[in-house]
Fold this sequence. Notes:
The structure holds two protein chains of two kinds. By secondary structure, chain A is mainly alpha-helical. Chain A has helices spanning 2-32, 39-55, 61-84, 92-114, 141-163, 165-175, 177-182, 187-213, 222-235, 240-260, 266-280, and strands spanning 119-120, 131-134, 137-140, 215-216. Chain A has one domain. Chain A has a two-stranded antiparallel sheet. Chain A has a two-stranded antiparallel sheet with strand order 2-3. In chain A, helix 1 runs parallel beside helix 5 (141-163) and helix 5 packs antiparallel against helix 8 (187-213). Chain A starts with a helix and ends in a 14-residue tail after the last helix. Chain B has helices spanning 2-19, 25-50, 58-75, 79-104, 109-129, 148-167, 169-179, 181-186, 191-217, 227-240, 245-261, 266-283, 296-312, and strands at residues 139-140, 219-220. In chain B, helix 1 (2-19) runs antiparallel to helix 6 (148-167), helix 3 (58-75) packs antiparallel against helix 4 (79-104) and helix 7 (169-179) packs across helix 9 (191-217). Chain B is globular and about 55 Å long. Chain B has one domain: Orthogonal Bundle (ABC transporter involved in vitamin B12 uptake, BtuC). Chain B is 76% helix and 1% strand. In chain B, strands 1-2 form a two-stranded antiparallel ribbon. Chain B is mainly alpha-helical. Chain B is built from 13 helices and two strands. The interface between A and B is large, with 46 and 41 residues.
Amino acid sequence: MEGLLQQIVNGITLGSIYALMALGYTMVYGIIRLINFAHADIYMIGAYVGYYCMSFFGLGFLPSLIIAMFICTLLGIIIEKIAYRPLRNATRISVLITAIGVSLFLEYGTMFFVTANVRTYPEMTGLLARTIKMGNIVISMQQILLVSITIVLMILLQFIVKTTRIGKAMRAVSMDKDAAELMGINVDSTISFTFGLGSALAGAAGVLVGVYYNSINPLMGMVPGLKAFIAAVFGGIGIIPGAMIGGYFIGAVEVLVAGYGNSMYRDAVVFGILILVLIVKPSGLLGKNTREKV
Amino acid sequence: MKKLIGLGLTYAIVQILIMTNAITGYLQATLVTICINIILAVSLNLITGFTGQFSLGHAGFMSIGAYVCALITMRVPTVYGFILGVLLGALAAALVGCLVGLPTLRLRGDYLAIATLGMSEIIRIIFLNMEITNGAAGLNGIPQFVNWTWLFTFTVGTVLVISNFIKSAHGRACISIREDEIAAEAMGINTIKYKVVSFTIGAFCAGIAGALYASYFYFLKPDLFGFLKSVDVLVIVVLGGLGSISGSILAAILLALISSYLQSFPEIRMILYSLTLIAIMIFRPQGLMGSKEISLSVFSKWASGLKSKRGRV
């Protein structure tokens, strides 16, 4: 029982990371119908920015997190401007191939500059290094920090999407781009804003992963990125609460498979879930079935 | 007839160069890579370029062919064992392709891409965990049977089969699915059937490529067949032109030469690859060749044009 509780705590921690990343995937997919493969690499770059802020400039955790989020926002907007905007009216396969290209470029470009070596985040000190014991369950302060920052960011995101003007514009564009344009919404800047928002969350996820798992490398984004995308599909792509639910579900499944089954198969199980979801209910948990019109 | 002469000449010239030791070691490995990449690219082109189904799982099919062939030739180390291995490897890949294709090919576009990517990752993880494939350490000492004759036979065979398939009524049905799936269905084409057929043929050929790979490089490990391998093949297809077999062949040769030149700088190679992908998609989304084909008749026309000019002078 205590083992199970411990696994659930770990699952929630991992799930927070997936949920943060899945939000970016789901928002971008919702607005321009693109699987942004580069999203996972923005997460990796966020981790590197956090690493350099902490170990070279000696900044604390919060300033590093904010700087990483800011740089990732800029990066997301630049990528959208350079690589995706010229392809706004191209076929979906070409945009997807471009996204794979951007992803590889970020991975190997980073590898070129910082080498492929694994870097370790500086040790956390003070309050962040403590752990709380409840019976046999161990919760580290880092886990609490990670989950609480995730929740704060999610609330912030909900606030932006639900109540602000730009959030309204985002929802309008994702519902019907042409109609939104006719209503006087600047579609291009709304799409840029969506990319920036998603990338900021990915950057935050990168720093949090660096603090929690300690080691980062240029290819660290690939597998978590795919899993976060699976989380987004599971919850219903394009739906923000769906991405959160999906993220926590995938995190929990992965930790439980690793804990009670064969840890070698945890990635396979997650991909199996993807294929199952796609076959049974491609619109996801919260998605509605839509008919295709000719 | 002219085609036959051209093919015969290519075969004979390379064979003579190999026999006189003009092509050795490293150059020969590049030649093998080119041929394997041609098979992979042409078969992926059938799925993605002609039928319009975006697959990111080609490395998975390749790995099935490679492992089956390797396991068989290690038990039966004769030429017959090798042929059996290639055939069974390709059949196993085709079977998996068919089984995976039946449910997933109902999906469209990027969903299918992610599903096939997931499928190939699952295949890789299974090979990583199986006893018989020796896990992450991989298989070593696979008997080497692939020589230029086998390589040439299989490459030409694959290209001929696929280009003839495309010219047939079935092939036209596949192209119509790419152009407009709903319209094709309205015209009475069984879209699911043709999608699965092209997926299965593509998987079969990828299995052949994997078997040849295993038998030439005599070493296999699951990591060779990751996401990046699928992307490698995709780059060839996109560069050559979605829907152009001769484009795929040209791009396979071009990229193999470039990457063998950049062998000592793997990072720069990947950066160049990625920039190529982005640049092609932005500036020339149809690839080098578009959906055009060059054939040997182009050369003969060109030659007869020269002759007539000379005659006039």
